[in-house]
Amino acid sequence: MNQPRDYADLARVDRTHVSLYTDPDVFHDELERIFYRSWVYVAHDSEIPNPGDYKTTFIGLVPVIVSRDLAGEIHVLVNRCMHRGATVCATEKGNARSFTCPYHGWEFGLDGSLAAVAMPRGYNAGEIDKDKLNLVAAARVGSYRGIIFASLLAEPDISLDQKLGGVKEYIDLYMDFSPVGEILVGRSGVNKHLYEGNWKIQVEGSVEGYHAPVTHATAFDVMIRKMGFPANYQDLPLHGIDGGYGNNVLEVYRLPDEAVFKRWPAEFIDLLTQAHGRERAMEVLRTRFNMVLFPNFAILEYQFRVIRPISPERTEVRLYHTTLKDVPAAINTRRVREHEFFYGAAAFGGPDDYAVFDRLGAGYHARMAPWVYLNRGYLSEGTDDHGRRIGGHTQETQQRAPYYEYRRLMARAGA
Ligand code: FES
Ligand SMILES: [Fe+2]
Question: In the prediction, which pLDDT does 178 show?
C-alpha cells in the first residue's frame, strides 16, 4: 500500500509538484484512479468499420483489444489470455474471426468468449469452468461522433454525455469539416513518438499557446512569411477554455471570411454549404483549435493524438492523421501535406516539442526547485457564457483545466 498523498496539495490550482511527473507511487495511483476507472479514449469507429475488424491499444498499462463482432457490436477486451496470461493478439489492427493464444492455443471469440481449449481431454471434469474464462471486458463502453471511450474496471461516476458536455460543440465542429459529418482515422498514416517524460507533459503540451513562437520559431517564420499565418499571433483575440472534467480547448485561429475564401477552394465551400448551410459551413472553416479530452486524448487540426503512459518518465504518443469522408481527394491530400509540414519525425514542428519534453523530464529531477508553474493568466481568468473558465490563448487556463479533474479523481481513496 502506498503512503497516502495529499494530491490537492501536490496539484495546486496554479502549480504542480515535480513528484507528480516522476514518482512511481503517484504513477500507480494515477493508473488505478484515473486510467482504470474513468472514461479513456480507445478508438474511432472508422478504425474498425467491418464485422471482425479489431485494433489493439492500451488503457494505462493494460493491453486491450477493440473489436467489432459479426453482429456489428463493439467490445473492449483485456488482451490477456485467461489461462496463463499471454496477450492473445499481437498485431495493431486486422480482421479475424477469433483470437488464438500463442502459448497453448486457447481461442476467444470477437466478443471475448472462450470458444475452445486446445487438447481438452487433459482437463478432468471440474478443472475448468469455461463460462468464467472469457476475456475480461471493460466495465463500460460509450461513444460520441464515432469516438469510442471505455472505462476498464469500474462504472465511471459520470456519464459520457456529462464528461463531454462542455466541449461537444468543438467535437461537432471538427466532424462537420466533412459534408457527411464523418472522418476516417489512421487511413493516411500514423506518427509515433516516444519521450523520456511523464504523460501529463503531453496533456499540457497539446494545448500550449505560449511556447509556439519560441519552440517553433523556424516553423513560425515560414508560416508567417509563406503561409499567411498572422504575424501578430500574441495579440489575437483567442482563448484557452476549461471545458470541464479535465477537458479543454485552445483556440489557434479564427479566420476572417476573406481568409476562408482564400484558403479553401470555392467548390469545397459550396459542398459544405450544401451539407450544413452557409453559416455553419463558414463557422467550421473559420475555426481552428486544439483540444484535450482528459486523460489520454487530444484532437488537433489534422490529427487524433493518443497519449500512452508507459512508466512515470516514459510516454508514447501516436498522431493518427484524419481524413474527411466524402470530399474531393485534393482536399485530403492537402490536409496530409499541411500535417506533415509540422508533425512527424522529420517535420518542422513536432520534433521540437518532443526535444523539449525530454528536457522537462530531465529538469524535473531537480527536487530543490519543486514547482512547475501554470499560473500565467490565473488572476485575470474569466467565465464565458457557458460558465466555463476562460483566459487568453497564450495564458495557461487550458493547462490548469485538467488538474481540477485530476484532483477530483485522485482524491478517491482506496481505488
Ligand atoms: S497462456 Fe494462453 S493458452 Fe495458455
Ligand atoms: Fe509545440
Answer: 98
Hey, which CATH number is domain 40-144, 1.10.10.10, 2.102.10.10, 3.50.50.60, 3.10.20.340? 2.102.10.10
pLDDT one-digit tens code per residue, 172-192: 999 999 999 999 998 988 999
What protein residues have CB closer than 5 angstroms to ion ligand 2? 353
Confidence (pTM)? 0.97
Which is it for strands 183-195 and 239-244: parallel, antiparallel or unpaired? unpaired
The DSSP bridge partners found for residue 40 are 150
Whether residue 2 is predicted with pLDDT greater than 70 in this model: the reply is no
Please give the DSSP secondary-structure letter assigned to residue 124.
Answer: P
How is the chain split into domains, by residue range?
Answer: 40-144, 166-410
**What pLDDT, in 10s, does the model give residues 231-254?**
888 888 999 999 999 999 999 988
Q: Cα angle at 320 between 214 and 171, to 5 degrees?
A: 85
Cα of 305 from ligand 2 centre, angstroms: 13
Establish how many alpha carbons lie within 13 A of residue 284's alpha carbon, considering only the half-sphere containing its beta carbon: 24
Tell me, in angstroms, the distance from the centre of ligand 2 to residue 370's CA: 24
Candidates 224, 296, 256, 283; CA nearest to 31 is 296
Instruction: Provide the grid cell at 14.
Output: 496554479
pLDDT digits (tens, 9 = 90+) for 283-328: 999 999 999 999 999 999 899 999 999 999 999 999 999 999 999 9
A 10 A CB-CB count for 212 gives 21
Residue nearest to atom 3 of ligand 1 (CA): 104
Alpha helices in 156-276 (DSSP H): 160-164, 168-175, 199-205, 212-215, 217-226, 257-263, 266-276
Determine the residue of 101, 107, 119, 128 to mutate for testing ligand 1's pocket, defined as the one with the most ligand atoms within 8 A of the Cβ atom.
101
CATH architecture of the domain 166-410 equals Alpha-Beta Complex (3.90)
Three-class secondary structure of residue 52 per DSSP: coil
Ligand 1 is surrounded, with C-beta below 6 A, by 81, 83-86, 101, 103-106
Sign of the CA dihedral with 167 first, then 169, 171, and 173 last: negative
